[in-house]
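Students often ask why inverse folding is considered easier than folding. One informal answer: many sequences map to the same fold, so there is more than one right answer. In these notes we will look at a single instance of the problem. The structure comes first.
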């Protein structure tokens, strides 16, 4: 049984590239030394803002195996 972490993800846009930053609840960078696979999926969705304008968003699902 491995350790479980509450992971905060931050998706930064740099030009046309997206950079994914992983942090633990304590704000420490997640060590990925023993990770053998990372999968980042997203699905498209939309919400409506306060003025009723449609906003397209992406829902990200991050999973990794150690």
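Output (designed amino acids):
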């Amino acid at each position: 049984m491995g350790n479980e972490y509450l992971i905060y993800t931050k998706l930064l846009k740099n030009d046309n590239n997206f950079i994914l930053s992983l942090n633990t609840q304590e704000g420490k960078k997640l060590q990925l030394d023993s990770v053998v696979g990372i999968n980042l999926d997203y699905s498209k969705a939309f919400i409506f803002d306060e003025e009723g304008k449609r906003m397209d968003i992406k829902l990200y699902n991050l999973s990794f195996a150690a």
